[in-house]
């Protein structure tokens, strides 16, 4: 069994990354992405347009990050790349759209930002489509 520099078994780290990917992607999709799809017209009126690109662009960008990228992260496909739009949407939301929020008011957003930044830094782990493709390339 492979040990890391911290003496942890690598499979435990891979399980932790799998858990982060699945739980983070589920929460992002369930709380933010799915409601934007189901209530698209209401969200189009309600969504902020922080860069003046139009509410349609802002909503589609959020849906891309919170639905498409969340799905890619969950299965571990193009994981690090898929984390970037999610991180961008969260940073814009927390620092530009809602700068008045206290940490307590924005804790869900900050926790999602922590989760997806950790995944972007660490990668998807062994239990991912990315890792499966990497193993096939080694053969």
UniProtKB/TrEMBL annotation:
<keyword id="KW-0472">Membrane</keyword>
<feature type="transmembrane region" description="Helical">
    <location>
        <begin position="107"/>
        <end position="127"/>
    </location>
</feature>
<dbReference type="InterPro" id="IPR051907">
    <property type="entry name" value="DoxX-like_oxidoreductase"/>
</dbReference>
<keyword id="KW-0812">Transmembrane</keyword>
<keyword id="KW-1003">Cell membrane</keyword>
<feature type="transmembrane region" description="Helical">
    <location>
        <begin position="81"/>
        <end position="101"/>
    </location>
</feature>
<dbReference type="InterPro" id="IPR032808">
    <property type="entry name" value="DoxX"/>
</dbReference>
<protein>
    <submittedName>
        <fullName>DoxX family protein</fullName>
    </submittedName>
</protein>
<keyword id="KW-1133">Transmembrane helix</keyword>
<dbReference type="Pfam" id="PF07681">
    <property type="entry name" value="DoxX"/>
</dbReference>
<comment type="similarity">
    <text>Belongs to the DoxX family.</text>
</comment>
<feature type="transmembrane region" description="Helical">
    <location>
        <begin position="12"/>
        <end position="31"/>
    </location>
</feature>
<feature type="transmembrane region" description="Helical">
    <location>
        <begin position="51"/>
        <end position="74"/>
    </location>
</feature>
